Amino acid sequence: MSSPNSIVRFRRLRRTTNLRQLMREHVFSLDDLIMPVFVEENISERVAIESMPGIYRYPETQLTDYVRSLWHKGIKAILLFGISHQKDKEGSDTWNPQGLMARMIRITKTAAPQMLVISDNCFCEYTLNSHCGTTGNREVDNDKTLANLQKQVVVAAQAGVDMIAPSGMVDGMVAAIRTALDAEGFTHIPIMSYSSKFSSSFYGPFRDAVDSSFKGTRDAYQIDCANAREAIAESLQDDAEGADILMVKPGMAYLDILYRIREASLKPLAVYQVSGEYSMIKLAAAAGVLDERAVITETLLAFKRAGANLIISYFAEAIAEWNKP
Ligand code: PBG
Ligand code: ZN
């Protein structure tokens, strides 16, 4: 048996709350959080998303009030998703200056001018087959989608968006978007790329959220969940193309990827705690199996520990409410 003074005593710094707080290596605050917001056209009341308790699809008529309420709770950044009723083969509503994407940007910026408004730039909520781009003969046509994405982001910028967040895993999307924005004088608008986005079953409840009839797979453009090296290469490519912020999505099951990208790039890094992660915690807490607040805190600290700087989470609004006096 070792003598008392040869024992290395980690417990020395864990004895009291004050000591433990002094020793804390990571924190998160509302400064780091981005709240996703779902907006559906042609509805008059908000619709509860059954698979995501506490999350709603908002009509445009209630968007002003909702965004102001988020701002007053202390939310400083939102990520907009539109649920279109004007779907076509290409998702052309996304580059219509009177389309849903442009309208929801204008409404939110007018409602809360200081709120950082980010658009999720993709096509899946606007195409008839719900793919993240325009479908050619059989597959999603990468390069045609790039051209459409360029039109979409210019319209979003003209509508007043603060940040562009392309989520379609289109090869070359960051370079194409940067070129299009710069050509129209939007050199100041940053791009937060969904740079390492996996083809994940954790997106299940999101499909419910966006009312997607999508039964297919995005395996042909999102990353295989078995692949780490490829995921690093994806983010480094977007870094090289000029992405201002990189992203890993989903979060909890991909902390190794977060950590490795944090080591490989000097760009700010975002993580997306996706719908399935949200629902797992909400449903387990509702069943009395998990302590909701403690588990949420633990997951966000894990993201920070792994190297995330920004966190996109459906819990952001609830966390803002925790801080209420
Ligand atoms: C689609 C998109 C998805 C999410 C954000 N943008 C779903 C998908 O790729 O099928 C997932 C968000 C979530 O699950 O919370 N471009
Ligand atoms: Zn998409």
UniProtKB/TrEMBL annotation:
Keywords on record: Heme biosynthesis, Lyase, Magnesium, Metal-binding, Porphyrin biosynthesis, Zinc
Superkingdom assignment: Bacteria
Binding site for Zn(2+): 122, 124, 132
GO BP annotations, alphabetical order: protoporphyrinogen IX biosynthetic process
EC number: 4.2.1.24
GO CC list: cytosol
GO molecular function list: porphobilinogen synthase activity; zinc ion binding
Reactions this protein catalyses: 2 5-aminolevulinate = porphobilinogen + 2 H2O + H(+)
Catalytic site positions: 197 (schiff-base intermediate with substrate), 249 (schiff-base intermediate with substrate)
Positions of 5-aminolevulinate 2 binding: 275, 314
Pfam family, one: ALAD
Family that this chain belongs to: Belongs to the ALAD family.
PANTHER family: DELTA-AMINOLEVULINIC ACID DEHYDRATASE
Quaternary structure note: Homooctamer.
Matching NCBIfam families: PRK09283.1, PRK13384.1
Protein name listed in UniProt: Delta-aminolevulinic acid dehydratase
The species this protein was found in: Cellvibrio mixtus
